[in-house]
Amino acid sequence: MNRISWLAVPDEHSAHEGVQKLWAKAEANLGFVPNVFRAQALNGEQFLTWWNAFNTLVNRDGHLSPLERELLAVVVSSVNRCVYCAVSHGAALREYSGNPAWADTVAVNWRHATLTGRQAALCAFAEKLTRTPADMTERDLTPLREAGLGDPELLEAAQVIGMFNMTNRVSSALGFTPNAEYHQHARQPTPLTAD
């Protein structure tokens, strides 16, 4: 098995009981256990606390659409150059958008992607909050409000952006490697031809 973290990774026998249950659920639902689940399992209670917060913000119904949350995840992860999160959430963005080329463009430079006004405002907000959080002012909310986001959406956007900044830093600090499955997820394989 390839190394997925620069730290020790527990196996199925030594992992916390709650973590083992989450791994089994992921295996049943996804067909594999995300490496981020394995790599953070060294501290089982802390990992489960992270997972509950992450799952609430990213996977459950909220004020933003799943596509918008994944859009924020990809922009933040791209700005932070977090390999694990850019690859894994890039796969989710491809799935939710149904457009691999668009999702890949967002992952490299969201300004080159065709976006709605709302999507562009979210991306700009995510980028500024990630790059220069100390420079945020109330004026940074104006483009989001003009794009139709209300206070619940604004709070959720800030929380999702904050969650991904934290997760990016943990993943990058400890060398988490994305699962191979993410690279091919939601892509239409087409042969390249030379003209």
UniProtKB/TrEMBL annotation:
InterPro entries associated with the record? AhpD-like, AhpD_core, CMD-like, Uncharacterised_peroxidase-rel
Its organism's taxonomic lineage begins at: Bacteria, Thermotogati, Deinococcota, Deinococci, Deinococcales
- Return one GO MF term: peroxiredoxin activity
Q: What is this protein called?
A: Alkylhydroperoxidase
Pfam families documented for this protein: CMD
Annotated Carboxymuconolactone decarboxylase-like domain ranges read 46-126
Answer yes or no on keyword Oxidoreductase: yes
Q: To which species is this protein native?
A: Deinococcus indicus
Keyword terms of this UniProt record: Oxidoreductase, Peroxidase
